[in-house]
Amino acid sequence: MSVFSFNQQTGYLSLLKHPIDSGFIATTTQLITLIEQSQYCDFEIIAVNISKLFTQSKNYQSESLIVAHAINAAITINIDDKNMVAEATIKTAKGGVLLSMQDAQKALFDAGISKGISPQALDNFLGQQFEHPAGSEYSAIIAHGRNPKKGLDAKFVRLCSTAQDRVLSPQAKEGGKVDMKNLGAIITVKPGTPLMQRVAATLGEDGYTVFGDIILAKPGKEHQLQPFEGTKIDPNNPNI
What we know:
alpha+beta, 3-stranded antiparallel β-sheet, rod-shaped
């Protein structure tokens, strides 16, 4: 027969009778051992109340019979100074209710976190409640902001060979002989031949904080084609 009464609404564990009236529990140590060996072993023991139960008093009937408390798991959210990383800390339940996905999502919402949340990291984080002792704490990063990605500068792509590409090499003749004076054809281009293509700069990619604030990306540097003597911009394509 149990000597305890548990109130699920308040989470408090009480003795059914004062130790003096029951005559069953004689010392503080005996009562604590009884709790630790019961189904309420993970509850937080209220040592002050237990101590009073075993202190001589004429009005012992007025003493509280509450000896332990079931504490639900709790979560706290911490954000770094740059608002780019959100770390959650769970204090595991002591006989109370485990933290659910809905509880964690509400905590994130209340903290203002709206971007960069990893559902898998959050799920793994909550699952660790079964691996840690009652009343212990553990932490994990569950949301990341994203740094902006700088745009690429404009660049130029050569579309034809130049004199520097000419390989100066004696040319073979018929009969297996080599002409030491013929070092290869001179590289030339015809009018209208595409010489250079401009690849425009890119805008980059904006970043964001865990609060959803946008961090603007820095665009790449823009450069224009500069025609010189004997060249011109393609009238049909300003990038050629």
